[in-house]
Design goal:
By secondary structure, the protein is α+β, with helices and mostly antiparallel strands. The protein is built from 1 helix and 4 strands, in the order E-E-E-E-H. A 4-stranded antiparallel sheet has the order 3-2-1-4, with no helix packed on it.
């Protein structure tokens, strides 16, 4: 998955509401970011109004796997 030594950043957000079986999370200093997340991505017991911390880090293994798959698909298209 990911290397715990990768640089990461985090930011605050809050769980605004539940809509259509998904959670609407608002982030950014002015609420300019809206994330629609599957419910299973929330911590157990999270409810509307709860504040969250979202961590983001690079996933070099995932990037490399995606690049390899794209190269493979490009090769298939050339045939």
């Amino acid at each position: 998955m990911t290397d715990d030594n990768q640089p990461q950043t985090s930011f605050g957000a809050y769980l605004d509401r539940f809509e259509g079986g998904r959670a609407v999370v608002i982030a950014g200093e002015d609420g300019e970011i809206q994330l629609d997340l599957p419910l299973d991505r929330l911590p157990q017991g999270a409810k509307a109004g709860d504040h969250l911390t979202i961590n983001v880090r690079l996933d070099p293994e995932g990037t490399e796997a995606a690049r390899a798959r794209i190269t493979e698909l490009q090769q298939e298209l050339k045939q």
